[in-house]
Amino acid sequence: MHGSSLTGLVMVEEHEASDEVKVIYDEIKRTMQVPFIPNGMKSAAISPAALTIYWNMFRSFFQHSTLPQSLTSMILYTIAETRHCQYCSATNELTCRTLGVDEETLSALVKNLNEVNPARVRTIIEFAVKVSQRPQELVPEDYDRVRAQGLTDAELVEIILIAAIGNLNDTIADALKVQVETSVTEALTQSRR
Q: 99-136: per-residue pLDDT in tens?
């Protein structure tokens, strides 16, 4: 086991996991179709209860989301960048790149949302960022701008949930001092060339 010297908490590696955690780890790898357990999940696994809660929320979110995965990833990436969460920023950037989000859009998401196109995507992401950072300041016009882009109320509520999940992921990763996986860093280096 290794972890953060700052927190004193350890990550539970696959070969060190209890039987209860191994079952969840196997499900994570199968469901996410990944060959390894992400550090965020390994960091939560010190408490099997916390891992179960986090994984069930995460799994349910991705199984039931109706919005395009690229849009969801752009929202999560932008929120992670605005909250300065290194771990979530890296993982969501890689997901965006894997899903084909172009370099110009990735740059605009972190430097100037006014340059994000099409307008529908820009409006959705601006709304999600406001939900994430200043939900008390939301006014009827904020909701109307999103609806004017053709979104249903069900989609609008899903965007609010995505923003909240972005905050949750960032908080967990930052509080547990989760380090970006070497494989993610290497893949980002390759894709940025």
A: 999 999 999 999 999 999 999 999 999 999 999 999 99
Q: Is 148 helix (H, G, I), strand (E, B) or coil?
A: coil
CB-based contact 143:156 (threshold 8 Å): yes
Structure tokens at 154: 């069900």
Rounded to two decimals, the pTM is 0.93
Distance CA 22, CA 15 (A): 9
What is the spatial distance between Cα 94 and Cα 173, in angstroms, rounded to a whole number?
A: 16
- Count how many residues are written for the chain: 193
**CB of 1 within 8 A of CB of 45?**
no
Backbone angles phi, psi at 3, to 5 degrees: -165, -150
What is the rounded end-to-end Cα distance, in angstroms, of the chain?
34
DSSP H or E stretch at residue 2: strand 2-3
Residue identified by tokens 């060339």 is 193
- Long-range contacts of the stretch 182-188 (C-beta < 8 A, 24+): 183/36, 184/90, 184/91, 184/94, 185/90, 187/94, 188/90, 188/93, 188/94, 188/97
pLDDT band of 71, cuts 50, 70, 90: very high
